[in-house]
Structure formats: C-alpha cells, structure tokens
Specification:
Number of strands: 0
Largest sheet: none
Shape: elongated
Structural class: mainly alpha
C-alpha cells in the first residue's frame, strides 16, 4: 500500500471514528481508531505525533462510550510520552484536556482542574479559540460537580461566547445543556428548561445521539421536579431508548436514577429502589464516583420512607463519604440533609441540628434554592418535634417561599404540611380562645392545601403523609372523626402499596390510640 493511499485511509478512518462518536456508535469508532493506529505503526518510520493524536481520540471515545477509564487514561499517558509540549503543543493540550476529563469522570477534581488549566494556559499562548473554549467549559463542569454554581456559570458563559463566535455547534450544544444544569440546581427551572431545549435543538441538528439523550433526560427532570410525572417519564423513556441503542452505560445509569425518582414521587418505593440500584451497579462498574454518591443517597431516601431508618443511615453515610472524598460540595450538602432527617427520626436531635446547619451553610454558598428549601423543611420538623413550634413555623414559611419561587411542588407540599403541624402545636398552648380557634383553623387550612397540591401533582406518598397529619389533628380535636378515619384509611392504603412500613406503623399506633379512647 503506497504512503499517499495509507495517509488517506488513516485520515478517513479518523474522520469516520469522529462521526461514529458523535452519533453514539462507539464500538465502530473504537474499531476505526485501532485500525488507524495499526496503519500508522506499520510504517518503517512511524509518525509518533500522529499515533499520539489517534490514541487521544481513541481514549475520548472509550471514556464516553465504554467508561473504561483506566484504559482511556493509559492511552492518553502513552500519547503524551510521544509528544513534547514545546514542539507539539496542540496535541499535548488535547491530551491534557482528555486526561482532565478522565479524572473528572473518576471523581478526582483536583487533578482534573490541574489538567484543564495547563491546557488552557497553552491554548491562550497559541491564541487557539476552540481550545480555550473547550478547557474553559471543562473547568465549568468540574466546578458544577463541586457545587460551586456561580463559578461554573461564569466558565460556561465564557466558553459559550467563544463557541458561538467560531461556529462550533457541538460546543454551543454542550455549553447550553450544562448552563441549564446550573440554573436547575439554582432552582431557576424556567431558565434551565430554555437552555435544555436550546441544546436539544442543536444536538438534533448535528445528529449527536448522546447529546439528544442527555438533553431529553434533563428536560424530563424539570417536569419531574414540577411533578408532571407522566410527561417526565415520557422524556426519560426516550432517553433510555437512545442510551440502550448506542450502548451508553453512563446514560443508562443516569436515566435509571431519574426513572427511579419519578416512581419515588408516585409512591412506588420498591420500583424506585430497583432503578436506583441499577444506577448504583452501573456506576460501580464504570468507576463513576459521582454516580455512586447519587445512587447511595437516593437508595437511602427510599429506605427511609419505607421506615428502615438504620438501613437508610448506612447508605447516607456512604453517600457523604464519597462526596467528601471527591470534594463535591453540593453532594455533601444533600447528604447532610438526609443524615439530619434520619437523626431526627432516631431522636438524636443535637446531631440532626449540626448536620442540617452544615447543609444550610454549604447550600447557601452554592445558591441551590431547591435544596435550601429542603434544609428549612427539616429544620422546621426538628424544631417542631422539640416543641419549638414558633421557630419551626418560621423555617417552614421560609421553605414555602423558596418552593414557590422555584416551582418545586414536592417541597411546597412538604412545607405546607409542616406549617400545618407547627400551627396546630402552637394552638394547643394558646390560652386565648379566639386565637386558639384561628390557629387550629389555619392548621387545617394548610394541611388541606398540602393534600390538594399533592393530589393534583400525583404525589401519592406526600398525599398520604398529609392525609395522615390532617386525620391526626381531626381525631385529637374531635373535628369530624368520620372524615378523619376515612382519610386515615386512604393513607394506609397508599403506605401499604408503597411498602412504607414506618408510616404504616404510625397509622397503626394512631388507630390503636383512637380505639383506646373509645373504650374509656
């Protein structure tokens, strides 16, 4: 085979591998890269810099498509040994960017940022706009994972401007999607949806299947948070179908987690656990520490609502341990919320307060309104069970304002329920009859609002919790006990279907208490 023909074939294989990568045909892309490297090495005097370029391209496809991060890292290190920073700066930079991406995937954020900064510095010296934008965008991803949302947004916006200037649509699509992620985490759902839809349009335009799946899944998550579960599941199933078609294991893991979240909201805890555990298995197999952390946390939440608090605690501790190791501030904050909630149920109130305050401090800094609402809901619960009802009411009202500001219907339902509980407890200590009556009336009003919202949004488990709390108040006050018992019966049916043993135990105790009263 002549040299000219061989050079042409190598170029064709590389170009086709890139197309395969964009369209999610990773196996074919890997095969083409391996063929290209083989042809390069068959020369009597192999072009080492060309081999290095193809090895980096191969590592990129392996990282994205098969998640064999160790193999990808070895390929990049092999490539970097073949080139020098001084003589082949662009190849060296691409290697550093790819190595940084692998470190990011493995949860090694310190090394990831170091690689991206090295690449960016050299790209700036070369005045290489696309390279600057790629490295800048990659640093934004790391800061997003670390929970430093405002810093991430700054990097994404900077890279977006450059990608748009040079007409690199792939970069515009990725940056739009990741900007949407930041706004989602900040609780600005309308803005997040706008960016997700923009990225979906671009990915469809260039035929990038992995991007189409990713953007579709993110749109589904916005609808899930707004508790439009039917719409959310439709988007998730599209994402799952695309991920299975192209063999995107990480995508299958992420969408499995998201489907689990939708079933959790529907109150189907065993089904939710099945999907969460599928996400965990995939994350463990691929070494995705961020995915493992997320899966541990969600599995813990499902067990928590099943009433298996000790099991939940074990998963929450695994979650916070990984988040601390990889420096994920947002992950630490969310894990601290869940641990705080568990310690409330275990009546270790001092530990619960310490953890919830830790979560509040972290989440305030990163600007995550949705999870700040969750912090205040649990601080309200903590103060209410400690009979510090006015403080509890104050936190619950803060949570409600944030929930309504972000459109988080799950948080709004919980906040309304917590306000109702706090108001009723306050009314019990009230000596002035008119105020006592008003506070009881307001308590019932907020609980009915919570019930109405949960029913409208098909939040079955939240609906059952609010029915239980209203029934508890009605039985205690003797206010329409027939309706109270009907509510309790309906709540029990939902808890039973969800295998929420902890809540079934509460219903049983309340029913027995009611029976004892009638006997006396």
């Amino acid at each position: 085979m002549g040299n000219d023909r061989k050079d042409f074939l190598i170029k064709a294989l590389r170009n086709r591998a890139e197309v395969y990568s964009f369209t999610g045909k990773y196996k074919q892309g890997i095969e083409d890269c391996i063929k290209a490297i083989s042809y390069c090495k068959s020369e009597s005097h192999p072009d080492l810099s060309l081999i290095a370029e193809v090895e980096i391209e191969l590592a990129n496809i392996i990282e994205k498509g098969t998640h064999d991060y160790d193999r990808a890292e070895n390929l990049v290190n092999s490539a970097l040994k073949k080139v020098s920073k001084k003589n082949e700066p662009e190849i060296y930079n691409r290697g550093m960017d790819e190595l940084g991406s692998i470190f990011w995937r493995k949860g090694n954020y310190v090394n990831a940022l170091s690689c991206f900064r090295k690449a960016q510095t050299t790209y700036e010296k070369l005045k290489h706009k696309k390279g600057i934008a790629v490295s800048t965008h990659n640093m934004g991803i790391v800061y997003w994972n670390k929970g430093e949302l405002n810093t991430a947004l700054k990097y994404f916006k900077r890279s977006f401007v450059i990608f748009k200037q040079i007409g690199y649509k792939m970069g515009v699509g990725m940056t739009s999607n990741n900007t949407g992620l930041v706004y989602y985490n900040k609780g600005e759902l309308d803005t997040a949806l706008k960016y997700y839809e923009k990225s979906l349009f671009i990915f469809k335009e260039i035929g990038h299947k992995m991007g189409i799946g990713m953007a579709t899944g993110n749109i589904g998550t916005v609808y899930r948070v707004r508790e439009k579960l039917g719409v959310a599941l439709k988007y998730y199933r599209k994402y799952l179908s695309i991920s299975e078609e192209i063999g995107d294991k990480r995508g299958i893991g992420i969408v499995s987690n998201n489907i689990g979240g939708a079933y959790f909201a529907k109150g189907e805890l065993d089904t939710a656990l099945k999907y969460y555990k599928k996400h965990l298995t995939i994350s463990e197999q691929s070494g995705d520490k961020w995915g493992m952390s997320c899966a541990f946390g969600n599995i813990g939440i499902a067990y928590h609502d099943k009433g298996e608090i000790v099991t939940a605690l074990r998963y929450y501790k695994k979650d916070i341990s990984i988040s601390e190791k990889i420096g994920d501030k947002r992950g630490i904050g969310i894990a601290a919320i869940n641990l705080g909630r568990a310690y409330i149920d275990l009546k270790n109130y001092d530990k619960a307060k310490t953890l919830l305050k830790k979560a509040e401090n972290i989440i305030k800094v990163i600007g995550d309104k949705i999870n700040l609402s969750n912090v205040y809901i649990h601080l309200a619960e903590l103060n209410t069970v400690q009979k510090k009802n006015k403080i509890g009411l104050s936190f619950a009202k803060k949570a409600l304002l944030l929930a309504r500001d972000t459109g988080g219907k799950l948080q709004e339902t919980s906040a309304l329920r917590t306000i109702g509980k706090a108001l009723f407890n306050i009314s019990k200590k009230q000596t002035e009859k008119s105020r006592k009556k008003k506070e009881k009336k307001d308590a019932i009003f907020y609980l009915k609002q919570s019930i109405s919202l949960a029913k409208k949004q098909n939040l079955k488990l939240e609906y059952a919790k609010s029915l239980y709390e209203l029934a508890k108040i009605m039985l205690e006050t003797g206010n329409n006990t027939v309706v109270a018992l009907q509510n309790l019966k309906e709540a029990k049916k939902i808890f039973k279907k969800a295998s929420a043993e902890g809540w079934l135990d509460r219903v049983s105790k309340l029913t027995k208490k009611r029976g004892n009263r009638e006997m006396t």
